[in-house]
């Protein structure tokens, strides 16, 4: 998944369409659900991704990026690191 400035701005404003492809939107929504409501993820959720043509490696990459940011944000919070932008 490649991001340009328009896509990044859309993510920050929680506006996914029309700058994202259907696959990108599905992965972003799934990653958000996995982050916020992980206990509500079902086999149906994953099947819907596969039905869109998302393969296991793309799903794994999305989870990996999500987890990396979760870990970094938790570390920064615990260490009291201030964001300077």
What is the gist of this entry?
The chain is mostly helical and 85 residues long. Helices cover 66% and strands 0% of the residues. The two termini are 25 Å apart.
Poorly predicted sequence stretches spanning 5 or more consecutive residues:
none
Distance between the termini: 25 Å
SSE order, as H and E?
Answer: HHHH
Give the overall silhouette.
globular
Largest sheet: none
Give me the oligomer status: single chain
Average pLDDT for all residues: 84
What's the alpha carbon Rg, rounded to whole Å?
Answer: 14 Å
Number of helices: 4
**What structural class do the secondary elements suggest?**
mainly alpha
User: In what range is the share of β-strand residues?
Assistant: under 5%
Estimated helix fraction: 55-70%
Number of separate strands? 0
